[in-house]
Input
Amino acid sequence: MSVPARFVVEPVRTARTFEAAIEHLTEAIEHAGLRTGERLPNEGALAEQLGISKPTLRQALRVLELSGLVEVRRGKSGGIFVATDLVPSVAIFTAVKLEEEAAIDVLRARRVLERAVAQEAMRVATPADLVELERTVGLLERHLGERPSVMRADAMFHRALVRSCRNETIQAAMRGVARGLAPIRDAYSGGVSYDRKTLDVHRRQLTAMRGRDEKELDEVLDEHFRMLETQFAKGIGRRWRDVFGVRARRTPERRA
Output
């Protein structure tokens, strides 16, 4: 089954990338009058038309599939198909909110787990491990301005950090976090200024680990976590402290 020629999707030009992709895909399906069972372009073609990466597109498709608008079939005869003639607007809105909450959960989990990983790595990493981390920092610096390469170098740094712990359980836990973070990093981070900050915090993290400076390591990690958290909060139209800030709990008043 071929893609209907009347299906045209506009490129995304906004910071709220995955939400914008959902809106553009929904509008394109409705404008083209696609019916149940009709095929959309494949992932590569859709990502290119929208001007976004495949991880961000998959995040958008996951929401549209959850809402019941499209069906993603795997395998040779698979593809992306319209699942209903009626655009389920309310269901899409609900699915977007669920996706945002899932992203917040991942970012919070990252704070807990990645901090523990860095502290363990500082304790047990060998000189060879630190050399490998230094190599990934060098790769990131060499490719500044090349977004896909920067993201690969950043991911290599984090994988090398996890490997240096020499713990299979930690590696399994962090693989799950990495999968959840991939579309968030892709959609909400980027730009030369952001990538230079990433380079800076990686360098400072490595220096703190070599010096076994727990206080400095904690400060650098907090700064690193806040970078993506701030971009994400801004992207969904909220403030960092309202999404990730720790609110003091009120102590229940004692009754006389």
